[in-house]
Amino acid sequence: MLCQSPFTPLDSLQDCNKLYQFLDFCKQQSIAEQHEKIASISSTIESIDPLAVLWQFGKPQQRHFYFENRDQERAIAAIGEARSIQIEGTRRFETAQEFIQRCLKHFVISDASNLPWAQPCFFSSFTFFDQSTASNSYFPSAIVFLPQWQIVQGSDRSAILLHQVIEADTNIELLTEKIWRDFQSIQQISYSFFHFSTQLPTLLNWEIVDTHDFQSTVVAALKSIQQQQLNKLVLAHAIDVVSPLPFQWGHSLHNLRQLHPDCYVFSVGNGHGQSFVGASPERLLSVCDRTLITDALAGSAPRGRTLAEDTELAQRLLNNDKERREHQVVVDFIHQTLAQFGLKLRFTHVPDLLQLSNIQHLHTPIQTVLPVGLHPLEILAALHPTPAVAGLPREIACEQIQQYEQFERSLYAAPIGWVDAQNNAEFVVGIRSALLDGNRARLYAGAGIVSGSDPEREFAEVRLKLQALLRALV
Question: Which GO molecular function entries does the Swiss-Prot or TrEMBL record give (predicted)?
Fold first, then answer.
């Protein structure tokens, strides 16, 4: 249960004296209970751009997280760590949940924001597989962290949240001064534009290298499907891009949100120089006031160059037997998985279309009510990976992915998102994504292979997805 401060100060971040009083109260609580406290303070302000704050206020050696909802009415930036945990192994989702619940026991809330979406959040990323296969993996199997600074933008208001660990020997006076200075720095940031000191050279100056022969891999996968080893296999393709100058994740992220306003835009920075960025169309789950929504997203076609061509391609996708079968596999999996929790689902039995700027997908949103006591991470653990990013049967598909793919997936096609103090949550699937590391970038895209798949068409689909990512890096 979250502890509420007796002061309930209004916007204590904007009042240095109240800030000191609250932090000192937390220190006295820490002394009395002989345990650290996590002070949580929120301040509602005029609307600001969290990405601008992250870009200008965040430091390269700090862990960061950025998440922008595709409806463009909500964006969150997380900077630094108040508390964090790195997890390896098969119990990573359970351990993450235990860590969050343990931290919440020691929270002291200064003044709960009157904005329902501005609650303390724990940001997390889980790699596709629960064990890394590479010795130089940049991201652990799971990372969960409570940021020091959390900047949230709503439709017309924003909030700044501070999370600060307070112990019995904390120097409250020095801490108050530092927090006050940082808060003033955030308020003075220019939010109206991004300034990038250098621009990357054009694509002509880049070196682009395929990691493997994707079409040959599809041919091999089709043989496994024909031998009835599995029904579907999702194969990823990766290309490495080398630029004469370092990639700027802020620049790429800003481009992504402009080019793909209908997607979830995200960035996960590990604090060691590497960032995983992307614009995903696929929501794995969202929970708001116990209403859970997940998406079945499988079956794809390009967009047309004219309205007539676009309409024809859309209708062809809706009537395509191969694409409909691929989509139904995902719907059935989600239905069966959630039914194991005793959940009653609501969804249409005919998919609609999710039309993005350069591609369109068969889409079935699935909705249910999450019972009290069932944590979003329990659902997440059961859903990942769905047949939309792995295949079916899931265990055999994952084994074949590791056999066929010549690279580590890391965060590609894996859950990326947040859980707040009220058990609201939002996680997306980390597709249409890239790992940025200095002047190198690895771009990922995938395609679902089922009986009847054409290797040349599947390669064209991944090229289409990779081209959209390349545009954002320029």
Answer: isochorismate synthase activity
pLDDT one-digit tens code per residue, 154-175 = 777 888 999 999 999 999 999 9
Beta partners for 417? 124, 427
Q: Could you tell me the CA-to-CA distances from 81 to 124, 178, 255 in Å, in that order?
A: 12, 16, 27
DSSP letter, residue 11: T
Catalytic residues: 232, 282
Tens digit of pLDDT for each residue in 5-44?
Answer: 555 444 566 678 889 999 999 999 999 999 999 999 988 8
> Would you tell me the crossing angle of helices 16-33 and 172-187 to the nearest 10 degrees?
140
Structural tokens at position 405: 């793919």
**What is the pTM assigned to this prediction?**
0.90
Distance CA 282, CA 263 (A): 8
Residue-range domains of the chain with CATH: 3-187 (no CATH), 203-473 (3.60.120.10)
Nearest to 74 by CA among 151, 186, 162: 151
Give residues with Cβ within 8 angstroms of 199, minimum separation 6. none
